[in-house]
Fold these 4 entries.
Entry 1:
Amino acid sequence: MAAMLNIDAGLDLVEALDSYASVTLQKTLANSIKLSGMGLHSGGETCVHVHPASENTGIVFSDGKHEILALATNVVDTSRGTSIGFNGARIRTIEHLMSALRGCGVDNAVVEVIGPEMPALDGSALPYVEAIAGVGLAELGAQREPIRLKEPICVRQNGSFILAVPAPKLSITYVLNYDHPLIGSQMITYSPEENDFAKEIAPARTFVLYEDVAGLLNDGFSKGGSIDNVIVVWQDRMSSKLRFPDELARHKVMDLVGDVSLIGGFLQAEVLAVKSGHTLNVEFAREVLRAQESAQT
Ligand SMILES: [Zn+2]
């Protein structure tokens, strides 16, 4: 009996040490960064500053007058990008910066935007990641509490779906499927534990089908779009050499990482997304938030 107690005590100690080893402190940028360039949809010059923020701030956007917390409940538009808004204020195409912040492990930041949307840069999250790496991160005093699922969550829309199940670590698998000779089906899995976000995901650029470009211009979208910041896909060619054979699927994972970060924390789940875009990604983030709320009541 005494031996049994000793074994139990030993196991308790191992568990305690394990949980101590897995403590992750919240992080912010060690210094401010600034990026500027053309907005993809407005075509206007736009500038963004990302500043360090204290623990438990989350990611907060500011247009100089209003502060908007980067949460799925504050999303006001998901056509051709994810826009958040509050009281008439609106900041467009936040997903690539959100993805860069999450991919780099940033919990807290204040994002000051001068202009109607985020700069398109090269169409990827890489310029943001490089700027963040340039200043480095600072650890804060509070512990990061990952957002865990108690049960599976599934959202569907027009043949697309996102299914997430409880898991000890985040892993996201994305399936892209276009009836197009140069795209077809592509599948990619991203896990922060096993993949280098900066090298494998962040460089993947936005793409658009040529057939959609005229329509986009008519709708007032993509005035700032050019082959410098968007891959245009024709039936038989692309506007630039791809950075990865499956760059388009990688970009979709990058978008998903950004949109899922609108749950206001780091998700800990196994996620399978099939053909999802911003609308479904944000709906998924809202479902995670609802599940968190109902778990607390
Ligand atoms: Zn994107």
Entry 2:
Amino acid sequence: MTELLTVENLHVVFQTYAGTVYAVNGMTFSVQPGEIFGLVGESGCGKSVACLAILRILPGHGRITAGRVLFDGHDLTQAKESEMQAIRGRQIAMIFQDPSTSLNPVFTVGSQIKRIIRHHTQASRQATEQRALELLDEVALPDPPRIMQAYPHELSGGMQQRVMIAMALASGARLLIADEPTTALDVTIQNQILELLVELRRHVGLSILLITHNLGVVAETCDRVGVAYAGQIVEIGPTSEVLHTMKHPYTQGLLAALPSAQQKGRDLLSIPGSVPNGLSVIPGCPFHPRCPHVMEVCRQTPPRLTAVNPGEAQHQVACYLYSPETAQ
Ligand SMILES: Nc1ncnc2c1ncn2[C@@H]1O[C@H](COP(=O)(O)OP(=O)(O)O)[C@@H](O)[C@H]1O
Ligand SMILES: [Mg+2]
């Protein structure tokens, strides 16, 4: 097995006053060592909930009801809480859209990074200080000695996100889950953070699960991508294949809704309808109520992910337009 992380048929529900919310409905994807895997989809498609489920940090009314999460071959859905504590931070680190919520406002950046280094190594005071400075330099923060003394609120959002990435590196994590890490940042800063992630993948060999609603971000950074809709993967494959020869009507709609596609003189093409609220499970293909190509079978039986063609085994789509048994 070569995968670092495999999410297999994951189901997550929330019990709410409005009823059961089916947030993740059979999601399957994997992240290989040293790769950046993108999980993309509109807001509400279950991307964040899937990440929380991987780390088993769902809120109390959320529950994994089926599926497996294999990390290094070990099923995290069955792990003891004490094992999960060792995995969180040490093996798998996570960064969020708003870094200020993850940093402690009352301690300096230096003390927060050094705490993590001390927690993971037996390094002396001096070596810890040295390593902290190195890490801040590695994430391209200017003047590391000054940043060490700074409190989080004295830094910009982009700098705070770099600090979060430095802390992930300090923990020695092999997998970084980055949930919309650039969504709150200016476009130029966004690009710098994405470049940093690409560089860390190259130099440190970090594997990254990058969550985004932005296909442009995927195009620039990801080796492979999974397109999520209603808590499932509807299309998956190498980024260039998925973005150049996208098959699923949902992926096609997402691409058509990109600003760059509209600038080429096309009408603003957004996907009609909206993401389902999760309060019921849609029979058949979850996209069928919004799909311009809907057929009878789509309303009845959920399509399975299948290879787009034998020469492209990695590129898979869950859509009856491409499955031989329905082609007439
Ligand atoms: N804490 C929660 N309680 C109840 N429902 C939730 C909670 N968090 C997310 N959901 C629901 O789960 C679904 C997936 O949400 P989410 O994973 O946040 O989407 P995404 O990250 O793709 O935008 C949505 O229908 C959302 O309303
Ligand atoms: Mg989200």
Entry 3:
Amino acid sequence: MIVCLCNALTEGQVRGAVAGGASRPKDVYCACGKSAQCGCCTATILSIIREEPSRRAA
Ligand code: FES
């Protein structure tokens, strides 16, 4: 699933960046070699950042 249309970032890429230590949307963009554009995906990326620790623990 595409999470960020501007940068064509997938959910898997975002989760990978979070697993690698990204803790802010800015970190996720940077880890993927991208940068923020319109910002519409910020809330979704924040949701993934918040849920990823519990997801990994399950
Ligand atoms: S949808 Fe992610 S920056 Fe625009």
Entry 4:
Amino acid sequence: MQQVIGATNYTWNGDSLSFSNSQHNIRFYQGRRKADVDGTTVWLNIQPNGSVPGGDWRLGAVDLDLFQLCVLPQAEGNPKPLRILLDPGHGGDDNGACSENPPLKEKELTLALAKRIAGHLKKAGLHVDLTRTRDSTLTLAERVRLARKKKADIFLSIHANHAGNTEATGVETYVLPPSGYPGTAEGSRPRGWQIGNRNDYHNTLLGFSIHSKLAVQTNATDRGLKRQSFFVLRETGCPAVLLEFGFLSNRGETLRMLTSSWQEQCAAAVTAGVTAYAKRLGALDQAVAEKRARDAEANERWRRHLASVKTNAPPLTPVSPPLPEPVATNPTYAASSPSAFFRGTNTAPAEVNTLIDFYTTGTLE
Ligand SMILES: [Zn+2]
């Protein structure tokens, strides 16, 4: 963590572990996938392994990687010009979730919100399209195809929530889980690689950029940046986010969502998030390219190592030599058992940098 955020201290209070420096304050909770980054809730792809008192606490490599490349870096450059496709959820035959009192259909709210967001994004100089501008029926596949047709750089799907528990409130932001990892919801099962996984880093930066602004600027309950393999997230070729703005099952929240002041706040927050993403895109592209080059180099070393082991071994049978074992281009995302991403060895009691050591040493196993 020292190398990720330059943190010089950490505190463990028996339940949570926090790292802080002048720029960041990050908290992880024992036995939970929940984390807190500078006041924003972020759900991890995998529960950290081990225990802090035991001195063997480890953040999953996939989460460490995403934190290091997408969540924590703050370097900003000139904003890249982006084409944004806004997707008001549902429409036509599909009402989505409904509130009875006051009467409100999700398809109406998402369209109204999308139009407000489009207005703010355009004012910020961005190019905006919508998947629908009226109450029309669109399949999920049609929405995804439009992203390709419109050459969208980012896809934002707009929704409102519903729950059996009428007390539930708040905003949540979804991005696709990395290949081989389950979604945030209890009982969610992992999937293999999907088209959307091409953009794992960009999805995370986009999701975090928007969610951190939304949760703060709208004063909503922060339900977190979550992961779920929704169709529009896994099948869209560009970075994609699905936003659940609030609960139609909660009367107070529904009344609030109907106000133009709330809708304006949301539109401003989404625009601030997209703008932050646009400014950090250059740095992320560079960091991702550098990481892929490091991975390729490590894989090449490993390939040569395997080849030399096989050359030196006495031949068992005179068959053509087998090819070296292929190594995943990006080992962090290799679809093997998640436990493979942790090292089981104990090191010194919970040093700040134990979190990062397995990442930076770069030794091959
Ligand atoms: Zn919906």
